[in-house]
Amino acid sequence: MTAVLALAVGVFLVRLTGPVLRNRINVSERTEAMMKRGATVVLAALVITGALIADGGFAGWALPAGVLVGGLLAWRRAPILVIVVAAAATTALLRLAGIS
Amino acid sequence: MSPRFLPNRDRDVYRDAGAMAIGIAIVGASFGALATTAGLPWWIPVAMSFLTFAATSQFAMLAVITAGGGVIAGLVAGIVIHLRHIPYGLAVGDLYWKHWWTRLLGTHMLIDQSTAFALAAGEDRRRAKTAFWATSVILFIAWNVGTVIGVLAGGYIADPAVLGLDAAFPALLLALLVPALKDRGTLLAALVGAAIALATAPFLPTGIPVLLALAGLAVTWPRRGGTETAR
Lengths: 100, 231
Fold this sequence. Notes:
The complex is a heterodimer. By secondary structure, chain A is mostly helical. Chain A is built from 4 helices and 2 strands; from the N terminus they run H-H-E-E-H-H. Chain A has helices at residues 2-24, 29-52, 62-75, 80-96; strands at residues 53-54, 57-58. Chain A starts with a helix and ends with a helix. The two termini of chain B are 25 Å apart. Chain B has helices at residues 11-37, 43-52, 55-66, 71-80, 85-92, 100-108, 112-120, 125-153, 165-181, 184-200, 208-212. Chain B is mostly helical.
């Protein structure tokens, strides 16, 4: 239970850091734009590493192929539901076909 | 900006978050199943999901502990992997920074998806707030219900990888980032940042490479535009 609470408190404090820092500085419009850009950059890096890396190594072809299909559909402005289902289906079918 | 994000059409936010809720619930179920088959009592994954609500942190801690790495190493892994939420809080923290209880709930529910949905609303603050809360609450419920189902069903839960869910999550985030990435500066910073994260990922603990990606901001930092106005 101690470990469960410790993780909960640790994670909460991490989440608290952003808004607390934000309230300590005078947020100009440019800072605001940069902070939004920063979160976008982190999310983009999460997408790329999530698509290509698993357990510290190359994730195999099925995973990036699914994300790529999702990305192409997003670029073509498909609805999010379609993007998510197409990405999952591509990866699942490739794996079913034996391509990992 | 995509027509999907017009202010009077919030229904799509609920629909998209609802669609992701199914995926999140399945991943939650696999977390619950994994934890109980590893020999943990049922209430540990349930309490973790409710009190932590951080999928990657929970999986990281569970993986380290079940691999025999110990509780302290598990905690460190779980918290380090979570550090990406600092830039998230900086970017969207003002959306819930009002009453003490919205601060508490908003902080607890800050996740990749709520951040991405809020950012996708662009300059529309009202829609960003709706997107943040809708995504947070729907996914919080899904994650916890999923965990409980996983604990109950144990080994009967499908592997999320078989369903391709590990592709669904990056694809969702990517779709939400597309409007922001149409800005050239943001796109450039994201490409440089992603390259840094990819190059460092094989050598660094998970969670650090995506933070190093912030160095990509340096490429576009000193630019001064007409939008620079102190508030």
